Amino acid sequence: MREVKLLAGTKQIEKSVLEPFSEEACDFLAELSSELRNHPKAKQYPDVRTFAFWCRKANLSKLKNFFLDNHTMRRIGRGIVFHIAPSNVPVNMGFTYAFGLLAGNANVVRVSTKAFGQIDVICEAMEKVFLQERFERIRRMTSIVSYPHDKEITAHYSAMCNSRVIWGGDRTIEEIRETELPSRSNEITFADRYSFGILNAKEVGMLEEDALRELADKFYNDTYLMDQNACSSPHLLFWLHAETSVKKRFWDAVYQAAQKYELADSKVSEKYTLLCESAIDHDHILQIHRYSNLLYVIELENMSYVDSDCRGKYGMFYEMDIKSLEQICPLINEKVQTCLYFGVNPEQIGQLIQEYSLCGMDRIVPFGQSLDIGLYWDGYDIIRSLSRCVEVI
Predict the structure, then answer these.
(1) Rounded to whole angstroms, how far apart are CA atoms 234 and 220?
(2) Rounded to an integer, what is the distance from CA 176 to the centroid of its chain?
(3) Which of 110, 158, 174, 226 is 20 to 30 Å from 320 by CA-CA measure?
(4) Checking DSSP bridges between strand 336-342 and strand 285-291, what pairing results, if any?
(5) Core vs surface per residue 177-197: b (16+ CB within 10 A) or e
(6) Which residues contact 103 (CB under 8 A, 6 or more apart)?
(7) Cα radius of gyration rounded to whole Å, the chain
(8) CA-CA distance, 49 to 39, in Å (whole number)?
(9) Strand order in the sheet with 5-9
(10) What is the pLDDT along the chain (393 residues), one digit of tens a residue?
(11) Cα(169)–Cα(167) distance, integer angstroms
(12) 80, 389 contact by CB (below 8 A)
């Protein structure tokens, strides 16, 4: 396989298993966290700093305790996990690797051939940690590779794996699924998803200036940090008990929070093209509010245009007024992943899913936590899915 480029670990992966949240795996990730936080280039990438913060020893201990409290049966890794990381959210290669390792597995992670500084920084840090003799076994269980789209190479890694994890759009998943897995192997797919938010205008209107800035900063972190590419980043906001003055005050605060966003010329061009296409193709737009190139807000008239095609990038959002939470129910299908909220009771939203037997929505979280990854994602219990239980009677 001459086209395969090794970025970290070894090409000759060792099939070895550990118990979930083993001391060895947790120590390695905690050391990786320290290395990343001290890496001179990491400061350039907020998503890398977020990953490093997630890997710190205190958070791993919290996740381990949660896992042990909710899983009483004896478990161990499945063997080798083959991960196909997404090309639009580069730091996810770190998260998917960490989940595979915490579940007790050896891991092959295929990353995009596109140049991403985040991947370089993470791999450089991993290689430095691997120099420590105590992590030699983890090194032999790790293979971070890059190669062009190639069915033969993908088939090679798929044939050796006990679990396969695919991050990507529906088309990517369909293409990879043409490559068969061994009969005892399982698969997790993180497909193309859609997320939105709900704001209670009455509650937003009562916020003092400092609290409003805090909410705007949280919204900024949910969206701009990943260029709205993360599946959990909201593209559409529903305003409950809407008031025009409150909405404007909120968007003014978001615009101020976005002043720190690096908006490259290519992003400006692509976002403006998306805006024009939306204005031309749809006749359910009430108004378009433009806050320089940093922020576009498209106000929708009714639910007939509200679906998972209401997508923006680089600070382009849709919004619509609603009178009750029940109005969002027609939108909630299998494509919907995360609902963010402020000023509403999340239990009421969860109740709607059960009451109306809705097939979508896996997460209901406050603004500011859209990118927080725990042990559950897209409705999967990840550690449990990537490990096997050992029944002892």
Answers:
(1) 10
(2) 20
(3) 226
(4) unpaired
(5) eebebeeebebbbbbbbbbbb
(6) 20, 77, 78, 81, 382, 383, 385, 386, 387
(7) 22
(8) 10
(9) 5-9, 142-146, 106-111, 80-84, 163-167, 186-190
(10) 568 999 999 999 999 999 999 999 999 999 999 999 999 998 889 889 999 999 999 999 999 998 888 777 789 999 999 999 998 889 999 999 999 999 999 999 999 999 899 999 999 999 999 999 999 999 999 999 999 989 999 999 999 999 999 998 888 899 999 999 999 999 999 988 899 999 999 999 999 999 999 999 999 999 998 889 888 999 999 999 988 999 999 999 999 999 999 888 899 899 999 888 888 777 788 899 999 999 999 998 877 666 667 889 999 999 999 999 999 998 899 899 999 999 999 999 999 999 999 988 999 999 999 988 888 888 899 999 999 988 777
(11) 7
(12) no
**Structure-block tokens of residue 392:** 């002892």
**Unique residue bearing structure tokens 């005050």:** 249
Q: Which two tokens stand for residue 273?
A: 């093209």
What tokens appear for 167 in the block?
A: 């991050």
Residue whose tokens read 């293409």: 175
CA 257, 292, 250 angle in degrees (round to 5)?
40
